[in-house]
Amino acid sequence: TDPKHLEVLKDVLQLGAALLKNGNPNVQRRILDYLQQDGVHFFENVRDLIRRGCEEVEDLLGYHARVKELRLASVGMDAVELEEMMPTFNETTCMEDLLVFIQLTCEGHNRKIQNLWRVQEARRTYDIVSEIVEYMVKLQSVGIEGNIVNRTIQCLRTLTELMQGPCKGNQSIIASSKLTAVCNKILQTQIFKECT
Questions:
Q1: Model pTM score
Q2: What is the CA radius of gyration of the chain?
């Protein structure tokens, strides 16, 4: 992904989030109207972006393994030498911005948009709710550390907004997914134990 394209995409999503602040119903209605009329490519692109986010998580797993190898091999090196050898991990998606945008489109229990994220009235439909759940599952394969914590929190907030109201279709998708096992795993971590 070209860093300039990523920057433009982040800015567009942040602009959308600013327009949707507090679940602005006028902006939600305009987005809904647009997506119902001409949104097929939008949903396909969102799906592809989330899938790229899943690939990025796999890249992050490889990055962590490489850092661990370097730390084991660096016994006797000073901190400056070690820092120079460490690889950097560059974000290639803007998942948090995308998740915030999706969350804000649903604020105020906007059932029409909630359902639209799961199914569209087109020949081809994209279940973005299930894609977000899969992203959350993939995130947990890394563990809850560093920037993964923020992504995990945003996934949970977005999924919560997608099913509140209640939006029974999204509740059904989420309840029958691997999310329950993921949440159980989170509740068993040291982070949860430190909160209690």
A1: 0.85
A2: 19
